[in-house]
Amino acid sequence: MNIPFLDRWRKRHTESDSALATAFEDDPDGVAELLSECELLRSQAGAAGLELDDSAASLAALDQLLPRWRDDPEVLPWLGNDAGLYLGTVIVRTVPGAHWHVWPGGSPVVRLASGREIQVVEAGLDWAVHGAPELSQVHAEASEV
User: Fold this and answer.
1) What's the mean pLDDT in 83-110?
2) Is the pLDDT of residue 95 over 50?
3) pLDDT score for 131
4) Cis peptide before 28 (omega within 30 of 0)
5) What is the band of 19 on the pLDDT scale with cuts at 50, 70, 90?
6) Which residue has the higher pLDDT, 50 or 21?
7) How is the chain classified by DSSP, letter by letter?
């Protein structure tokens, strides 16, 4: 069955989903810098007196924060996304051989030297919503490989 408006919608969404992957192919360092911004998370942590310095210790400190963001359902997914991107940034900067990889659909993951991939955004969302897994634990497991 040919439904023109549906074909146009699919094409538009397929193109926009792959925009990050295309940008990553063109400028991986630039995209890595963009992924490391995590502005909402840095703002929330700063309000709690915590400066995020892209270290493993900062992940442990984040794990100790009171999860006030859970009271705001609009902020929760954005903060979880930022937490995952921050986790990925710390892993990339502290674990030898770790680097960002962006799937064609636009999903950023961290690929370890062993080839194992860590779904950092998913881990960040789980942390923001449930408190587990702890960000520092995910980092520790990535460091072991």
Assistant:
1) 95
2) yes
3) 93
4) no
5) confident
6) 50
7) ---HHHHHHHHHHHHHHTHHHHHHHH-HHHHHHHHT--HHHHHHHHHTT----SSHHHHHHHHTS--GGGG-TTTHHHHHHHHHHHHHHHHHHHSTT-EEEE-TTS-EEEE-TTS-EE-HHHHHHHHHHH--S-HHHHHHHHHH-
Structure tokens, 62 = 């984040």
Instruction: Please identify which residue in the block is written with the tokens 């397929």.
Output: 14
pLDDT at 99: 96
Q: Check residues 68 and 16 and name the one with the higher pLDDT.
A: 68
Q: CA 90, 93, 94, 96: dihedral to nearest 10 degrees?
A: 130
Nearest to 115 by CA among 86, 143, 140, 145: 145
d(CA 74, CA 70): 9
Residue in the structure block whose two tokens are 């919608």: 9
| 52/27 Cα distance (integer angstroms) | 25
Tokens of 49: 């007196």
Higher pLDDT, 15 or 65: 65
Q: What are phi and psi of 134, to 5 degrees?
A: -65, 145
